[in-house]
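Comment thread on ticket #2218

A.B. wrote:
> Attaching the input chain for the structure job we discussed in standup.
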Amino acid sequence: MSLYQASFRVRHECPYRDLSERYPDLTIREWYLSECQVLEITSADTPTEQLLEDIRDLGTVLHESVDDAGVHVVTQSCLCSLEGSIIERFEDHACLYQPPTVHQQGWEHYTVIAFDEGDVRSLLTELDADRDIEVLSKTALSEQQVPHSMLTPVDQLFEGLTDRQLAALQLALENGYYEQPRKTSLRDLAAQTSVARSTFEEHLRKAENKLLTNAGQFLRLLTAMSSGNPLQVDRDAPAVDTAD
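C.D. wrote:
> Ran it. Output below, let me know if you need it in another format.
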C-alpha cells in the first residue's frame, strides 16, 4: 500500500503573517498541544526592541535567548478552539497533519500524509478556493518511510501521569538512574525530595508503567513495519552475545 506526502505553503490572514512578512529573517514554528499552542521563534539577526516586543505579545514567554548570534524565543498561549481552522480541513479530507507549521516571509508551510492520492488532491483544491497556495512537493511513500514523529504525539505518551509521577520520572532521568551502570539509587533520589523512599518508588514505578502502556500502541505500529524479530533465535546461525 502506498502513502502520499504533500508539502505546500499558503498565504492568508493569520496572526503570524504580518510578523513574518515584516521580519523576513524570522522563522516561527508552531505546535498544537492538547489545550495550548507553542511557538518557537528564531532569527540569525540581532533583534530590535520592537521585534522583541512583538514576539512577547504572542503569548507567555517560556524561554528567551538574545545575543549576537540572534534570537531564540519559545512562547505558549491558550488554544481556545481549532474550529474552522486549516487543521480541521486536513481531517475532513483524511489527511494526517505532520507538525510543526512553519511560518516564513508571510507564508505558512504544511506537510500532510494521506492514504489516497485523491484525498490530497481534494484538500489542495479546497484550500485553493479561498487562499493563495503553492504546492512544493507531492511524493509517494512506502509504509517504512512514515516519519516516526507522526506516530507519537507527546501529550498521548504522558496521558494519565500525575504531576508527582512526572516529577519522579524526570528526577530519575536527570540523575542517571536509567543509565548503565546506574549513577544513583532510589534512596539517593528520594533524599532529594520531601517524601519517603517507598513513596518515591511508588510514584516512579507507576510513572514507568503508565508511560510504557501508553507507548505500547506506538511500539506495535513501529515494529509492524519491521521484517522479522531480531530476538528470534535462528538455529542455523552462530550465537552472538550482544547487549544492543
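A.B. wrote:
> Thanks. Noting for the ticket: The mean pLDDT is 83.
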